[in-house]
Structure formats: C-alpha cells, structure tokens
Amino acid sequence: YSGSGGLDIGLSNTGAIEIVGCVEWDSDACETLRRSVDKGITTVIEADIKELDVPDVLESIGRSSEEIDLIVGGPPCQAFSVFGKRRGLDDPRGNVILDFVRFVEEIHPKAFVMENVRGLLSMKHEGEKGGIYHLLIDAFNRLGYRVDVFVVNSVNYGAPQIRERVIFIGNRLQLVADFPEPTHSDKPMGDQQRFATLGDAIKGKKFRDQGIMDFSPRKKGYLEMIPEGGNWRSMPEEIQKESMG
Q1: Pick the catalytic residue: 58, 77, 111, 114?
Q2: pLDDT tens, 168-221?
Q3: CB under 8 Å to 138, separation ≥6 — which residues?
Q4: pLDDT over 60 (residue 88)
Q5: Where are the transmembrane segments (predicted)?
Q6: Are residues 218 and 181 in the same domain?
Q7: What is the DSSP string of 63-90?
Q8: Largest alpha-carbon pair distance within the chain?
Q9: 40, 51, 99, 190 — which has fewest CB within 10 A?
Q10: Range(s) of the domain holding residue 88
Q11: Is residue 193 domain-resident?
C-alpha cells in the first residue's frame, strides 16, 4: 500500500534511504509511482498485498531478506477512522494491516515505520477499547521489535493541511526512537514558522490546463447536502459516517 508514494519519496528525499520496491494495487497510483523514477522509485509491484507471497516480492525486487533494512507502509485507514463505520479487522480494508505484520515477520528488517489514522489507537477488538493497538504492539514485540508510537499532525511540519496521524516506529536493535520537534505553529516560538497555507504551497507555480476527476453519483449526493461555506460536518451525523465509509 504505497499509494502514490508519499512515504517512499519522503524517505528517498532524505538521501539516506534507497527505495528498492513498492507494492500497490490501485492502477492509477501505480502509474504515478512509475513516473517517480527521479524521486527514487524503482520497482513497482501492482498487486493486492493479501495475494502476495513474501519470497515472490523479494524475487521481483532482486533482494534477499537480509538486504532489507526498513519496511514502511500506510495500510488503508477507513476501517479505523472515527469518522467512518469503524469495522476494524472485520472490514477487508482494515484486515490488510495484518499483512504489514506478516511482511515484517517474514523479512525481519532492522526497522519498520507504519502510519495510520489516530482512531486506530482507540479501535476496539474483541470488545476491548484499543484492542487493535494492543494486538499490533504485542505482535511486533513477539517478533523482537521495540515499538515507539507518536501522534503527529502534518501541519506542524510544513504541510498546508491539518492531517493528524499515528506513527509506529519499530526496531529490533532495541533503540529508543525520537520524533522531530514541530517546525511550524499557529503561534510560532523560537525558530518555528507559521502554519503553511495552500497559497504558500502553490504560489508562483504553473499548472497545466487539464481535466479533473468527476465524482460518482454517490459522492455528488453527499456534496449536494453541504451548503456554501460548509463542510462534511454540515451533513447529518449518520450520513457523515456513511460518507466516510
């Protein structure tokens, strides 16, 4: 679940990480990945991760498990989001998070990074609040990984978007992971900068005149419920959860 490569490209941009392979099932996302060779993206495996065997993936990227130092992924988040139906592991989209554990178990890299929505931390499993979180931590611990968990917001690191996420950083060297201090704030202190805006992000950039994706009839129905100046919270609560999946 590389998506369009945000995690991969971000790691590649550090200059310290070589991306040797990406797994993604969405054809459009895969096409985006294939056009990102200059960003460090090389091998793209277009397939459903649930149907992939780890040895076949390693063969496709031409590496042995001993050569893989890091696995990074952002499993689908809709099943865990507080804005959706929260079916957790009963949702096929949520169940694939266990495939991340499977890949870590079979490849046994030195470290892994997994990203998801904050709602995963409170998601129930077998009646226990936070059960999925504890299931994941226990699974990684059994595999010999120390895991540090951080709740971060992309707007605090220069992105023109309020996007809160939970980051799992695991390593089998038993090192304590640290997370960078926020570089941006609505009330900057010291060397911090003000939150970036969309205007900051696109100022001075030129865009091609091209078509845009049309919305499905279902999504158009939701949009018709939102008045000018409103947002998804303007819809009835039961519709909010339905619209978010």
Answers
A1: 77
A2: 999 999 999 999 999 999 999 999 999 999 899 999 888 777 677 788 888 889
A3: none
A4: no
A5: none
A6: no
A7: --GGG--EEEE----TTT-TTS---GGG
A8: 55
A9: 190
A10: 6-185
A11: no
Which tokens hold the place of 29?
């996302």
Which residues, other chains included, contact 199 with Cβ-Cβ below 8 Å and sequence gap of 6+? none
pTM equals 0.81
CATH number at residue 10: 3.40.50.150
Give dist(CA 55, CA 44) in Å, integer: 16
The end-to-end CA distance of the chain, in Å, is 18
Residue pair 144/104 in contact by the 8 Å Cβ criterion: no
Residue 84: per-residue pLDDT: 45
Calpha distance 13→5 (Å, rounded): 12
User: Strands 44-46 and 22-24, how do they pair?
Assistant: parallel
197 domain-assigned: no
Sign of the CA dihedral running 166, 167, 172, 173: negative
Amino acid letter for position 195:
F
Catalytic-residue membership of 30: no
Give domain status of residue 227, yes or no.
Answer: yes
Burial 209-234 (b: 16+ CB within 10 A, else e): eeeeeeeeeeeeebeeeeeeeeeeee
